[in-house]
Structures are given as C-alpha cells and as structure tokens.
Amino acid sequence: MRPALGTMTLREPRTLREALRLLRDEGPLTPLAGCTDVFVQINFGTLRAKDFVDLSRLASLRRIREEDGRLVIGALATYTDLIRSRLVRRRLPMLAGAAREVGGPQIQHRGTIGGNVVNGSPAGDALPVLAAAEATLVLASAGGERRVPFTGFYTGYHASVLRPDELLVAIEVAPVEGRQWFRKVGTRAAQAISKVVMAAVRDGLPRIALGSVAPTVVRLPHTEAALAGGADIAAAQRVLAEEIHPIDDLRSTARYRQRVAANLLSRFWADTAGG
User: Fold this and answer.
1) Closest listed residue to residue 171, CA positions, set 215, 117, 207
2) Distance between CA 45 and CA 93 in Å, rounded?
3) CA distance 46 to 38
C-alpha cells in the first residue's frame, strides 16, 4: 500500500552545513537527490522512511573538477553530467561509458552518481567502475569529513559504513594508469538492469570488478594476480569461476552469470592487448 503523502515530512536545506545539521539534530532523515529509486519505492509502498531531506539545492555537490591531481566528482553529479564532462571523458572514460547505459535520457538527467553509490545495488552500473578505479568516497557530517576507500564502503547487501548523520559529498579518483574497459550485459544495452557488468583496467597489475554476481560489487584479486603472473586466459577464467559465487534470481541464473563473466574477462583481455 502506498503511504499517504500527508504523513511525510520534507526538509529543504539551502547549504551543505544546514543539511548536515538537520541530519545530526532532526534525524533519522532520508536524503533525496534524483529520486529515481525512492519514487519507485514510494509508488510500490515498500519505503519505510517518512522523513526526508532534499539535497537538490546544494549546487556545490554537483561540481566535477580536478584538485591536487585527483578527479573530484560531486555526489549530485548526474549521469548526463558525467557523459558531458570533458574531465570525466579524459580521466575516466569507462565511467562516461557506464553513464551512457544507465536507463534512458530521463533517468540520466535525474539520477546521480552519489545516489547510485549510497543505494548500493549490486547491479549498479557505475559501481564496478569506481571499484576498478580504486576511488575514495568523501563522507561528511556536522563534525567533519572522513575518506573511505570505495572497496571498503559496503558491508553487505544495500548496507554500508555510512552513518545516519553523514552524507556522501564527493568521489575522488587518482590518475588511472592503463587501458580502461567497461561492458554491461543485460536484456538491453540501457533501460534494463544488468545481468553482469564488468569494469577493468589493464596495467602491470590488472584491476577487475564485477557487478550483479554477489551481494555487493566485487573486485577479483585472485583473477587479477593470475593475469599479472602470466596465466593464459583459460587459466584466469578458471580462477574467476572459483572467485565468484553468483545466485539464481528473476533476471538470470548463476550458471549464465558464470559463463558471461568468463566471456567478459576474455573480451577485456583481448580488447586491451597491445598498444
């Protein structure tokens, strides 16, 4: 059953400081950004939260910039912002590629990178990119900021180390050396939830991350080490098969995901060979 809108409350801070104070003093509050997930949950009556804080006026959280050699992406940057950003296309082209395959234009205009991260769906298209790029998340509260490696952010399915009084305010990515690669496998290239999604970087030690094969996005350290040590692709595929443990669900089967993940690994290695 849908909740009555009259039972919900909405705060509309004009500054980040005000938003963080509200989270500290009047929480728990559910932050709203693009609302592409929240509105679906409200429509289906599955959202328990009734008190919200609207972040849409915090324009500073939408900036994409370079700072001390790092690419800094504000948490409210939309997928359209990522696609259009020259900085993103130059520094992290696999993220721009992922953004192009998130929903359709309407979702790309509304959905935010920060919402994708905080929502924590294992099928989030941008998340393997951030894992392979070894991004750092900037979390802010009224008491200050802290930085958390992306690979240490999630604690389980839709669960993370983010505290109720904190907001994700930015994503920082150091220069990524090597050739970047991204592929999404789904019913359609866009406007469909991924069945398997892979992002990878080929350098001296490859970095490979998968979505939709575990409760959270995962890095593949054993597969990475096998390739770095000179294993052929067949041997690396066998290591990958032992390293992931996908499940059967409505979108696909574990066997299919195992097969597709192995095929993606082979395609990544072939596409990034040489120059």
Assistant:
1) 117
2) 37
3) 9
- Dihedral of CA 4/19/78/109: which sign? positive
Please report where in the chains the tokens 């997928």 appear, as a residue. 79
Q: What is the pairing mode between strands 9-11 and 51-54? A: parallel
Distance CA 93, CA 163 (A): 31
Per-residue tokens: 76: 């409210």
What pTM was computed for the model?
Answer: 0.92
Q: Which residues make beta-bridge pairs with 51?
A: 9
Backbone angles phi, psi at 78, to 5 degrees: -85, 170
- Contact yes or no for 51/72 (Cβ under 8 A): no
The C-alpha atoms of residue 199 and residue 213 are separated, in whole angstroms, by 13
d(Cα 64, Cα 8) in Å, to the nearest integer? 33
DSSP state of 15: S
pLDDT digits (tens, 9 = 90+) for 3-12: 555 578 889 9
Distances in whole angstroms, Cα of residue 165 to Cα of each of 10, 18, 19, 112, 114: 16, 12, 10, 20, 16
Interatomic CA distance for residues 112 and 109, integer angstroms: 8
Q: How many CB atoms lie within 10 A of CB 9?
A: 11
Closest to 142 measured CA to CA, from 40, 246, 53: 53
| C-alpha distance across the termini of the chain, in Å | 56
Average pLDDT over residues 63-76: 97
Q: List pLDDT tens digits, range 193-247.
A: 788 999 999 998 999 999 999 999 999 999 999 999 999 999 999 999 999 999 8
What's the mean pLDDT when you consider all of the chain?
91
Nearest to 148 by CA among 159, 161, 158: 161
Radius of gyration of the chain (CA): 19
CB of 116 closer than 8 Å to CB of 127: yes
User: Does residue 135 contact residue 128 with C-beta atoms inside 8 Å?
Assistant: no
